[in-house]
Amino acid sequence: MFIENKNRSIWIQQPQSNDPLYPEWYAFMQAKKEEWYLQTHDDLTLKAWYLPAEKSTNKTVLLANGYKSVRDRYGAFGWLFHELGYNVLMPDYRAGAKSPGNFIGFGWLDRKDNTGWIKQIIEKNPKSEIAMFGISMGASATMMLSGEALPEHVKCFIEDCGYDTVWNELAHKAKHDYHLPQFPLIHLLSFWSKLFAGYDWKEASSITQLNKNTKPFLFIHGDQDTFVPVEMVYRNYDATRGPKEIYIATGGRHVRSYEIDKEKYREVVANFLKTYFN
After folding, report:
1. Fold designation for 28-165+204-276
2. What is the pLDDT of residues 113-135, one digit of tens each?
């Protein structure tokens, strides 16, 4: 139930016209974008949209989406960075709604895919400077990426509502949604993940990777998030070893911190990027 993605269509949730972020989403969807492709180490072909900035720049934001989602869903975030003057690369993750692959990476497998996208950005423009931004599962992928050996082109990271470890998140969901204990369910599913997907849920840790990171990091979380409990952001924040900032959105639910106060969210993100990206 947690690993293999057999029913993808239920997670395609495009904003409706009454959605607070609909104008930004619509603008992004109407913009002319390039299609990029990435061949992974295990021979999957992943796709991404690339939206160049209106004014030529070497600065690109690599945007990571959430669990089983499609890039369409997060167009509003893509437009945010486009309006701030950056190129935007927005991939579909493996085993997402429109991507190949049988097993969800929960950020751990996706961190390696992100290194491939980073390499491709640099190959296309050796002068590139890159910021990584992730939402939900993509936020955890961003944190997990931060502990890898990365080129100097990668300048900083932003995560919005990511979990601290896959184990803790899925144990929370089992208890919160299904009233099930960790044992034996999470232990068995983690073993299954190791057997079939190549990783167990304790090793898939944002905290462990953040302990190896020295680059600047902005952490964002809504204080009303019950999907990924807000206490996780403080554990992530404490773990990183580089310059760091934190923004807790009052009234924000999961993946809703932007829409709850668009101006504040934009200001926090823009100021962070001005400080560490520009």
Report:
1. Rossmann fold (3.40.50)
2. 999 999 999 999 999 999 999 99
